[in-house]
Each structure stands twice: as C-alpha cells, then as structure tokens.
Design a protein that fits this description.
Blueprint (H helix, E strand, L loop, with lengths): L14 H24 L2 H5 L4 H25 L8 H30 L10 H27 L2
Helix pairs in contact: 1-3, 3-4, 3-5, 4-5
C-alpha cells in the first residue's frame, strides 16, 4: 500500500475525495472568518486576529496545492517536479487566492457596507494581508512540502 500525504490509505483515492481533503482546511478557515465578522471579533475583541488568519489562510491554500500535486503524482498525471518549482506553485496559488480574497473584502465593503477594508486602513492593510498570505504559504512549503514530495 502506497502512502498518500504520509497516511496509510489507498494510493488511488477517488478524485472527489482527494479534492475534498485538499480544500477542507481552507473551507474551515472561511467559516471561522465569517463567524468573526458576524460577531465583530475583529473589531471589538481581537483586532490583531487578522494577521494569524491570513498566515493560516496562506498555509491552507499552500496545503491544498501540495495535496493536489501529491495526488496528481500518485495517479501519474503529474511528473516529479523540482522542489523549488513545487514551492513556486504553492506560493503562487496562495498569492492568487489572497488577491481574490482582498477583492472579496472590497466588494463586501462596496455592496454590503461591511467596512472590512476601510476600517483596516485600506491599502496598507491589504498589502500586509497579502504578505501574511505569502509568509504562511512559504512556511508551510518549506516545513511540509519536502515530505510530501517523497514517495
């Protein structure tokens, strides 16, 4: 029995299960983030909660990228890539999701009047959030990625 993500499970998970396992941390983080917005936890209780949420968010997107690359290799759909290139893919995925997330916050401000970006000092906060996303993705990639590449 081969190992997938260093777990002793069947090497050929069905595609939907592999995708669900890859996306689960990000979905859980989005639910927690929505609860923080609804309960005003960012505003009243923990205004600095934004930093770890973005670091964890970047790490969860990188996890999804690594998990999907690992799954694709296990079913022979992706050749073995150099470590640096796999890190680039994972960090790029986190950057893309981070930019899309910042657009989501902006659209919430415009259409739902949530003040997610205006209350957080606009552009400076957006740049910090994107940097936090990249830090999380890079940390996860360096700490976990090499193990996921091994067969």
């Amino acid at each position: 029995m081969k190992k997938f993500l260093h777990l002793n499970i069947k090497p050929r998970l069905d595609r939907n299960t592999a995708i669900a396992l890859a996306l689960l941390p990000g979905v859980m983080l989005m639910v927690v983030q929505r609860i923080f917005i609804v309960t005003h936890a960012y505003d009243w209780y923990l205004p600095q909660l934004d930093i770890p949420m973005h670091i964890i968010g970047g790490a969860s997107v990188a996890w999804a990228a690594w998990a999907l690359m690992s799954y694709a290799r296990s079913v022979k759909k992706l050749p073995k890539l150099p470590f640096w290139f796999s890190v680039l893919v994972a960090v790029s995925a986190a950057a893309l999701v981070g930019v899309l997330w910042e657009h989501y916050e902006f659209l919430n401000d415009v259409f739902l009047h949530t003040d997610q970006q205006l209350a957080q000092y606009g552009t400076a906060d957006t740049m910090k959030d994107l940097a936090d996303d990249l830090i999380g993705a890079l940390l996860l990639s360096v700490l976990v990625g090499r193990r996921m590449l091994k067969k």
